[in-house]
Amino acid sequence: MTAPTNGHLIRAARRLRIQVPTMSTARLVRRACEHYNLLHPNKPPADPLTNTSPAFVERLCVNFLRHELSSYDTNRDAIRRLTSDPATAHEAGAIIKARTLQAIAETYPQLYPECRRQAVRTDRLDREPAARRRR
What we know:
The chain is mainly alpha-helical. The protein has one domain (25-130). Helix content is 69%, strand content 0%. It is built from seven helices and no strands. It has helices at 6-15, 25-39, 54-68, 72-82, 86-107, 112-127, 130-133. Residues 130-135 have low confidence and may be disordered.
């Protein structure tokens, strides 16, 4: 069996089926905050009813959907295993991230601003020199 070319991997990233589950906003917020609190037991708990900013809750929701309820990490990891070229892995990963954020924004329009913020942040980081990012 022949290994896929870098071009095949990029095309595959563009064609992946990206699915995001649908649930009520209240359920999504509760699950995202619970997940964050499990991952960060030594930080102040995320609780939208008392002390957590709406922007932070939106970030938690987008990250929870992307990392826990979509195939985002699985897809990126699979492509990284199939190529030894860092540029291809990076490009395919960026495509998968952008498409996943787009799917989240389409499924949860109220999260569009946070999805856009994360996409713009990723794009900006891609253009900055690596030395500048490490500061």
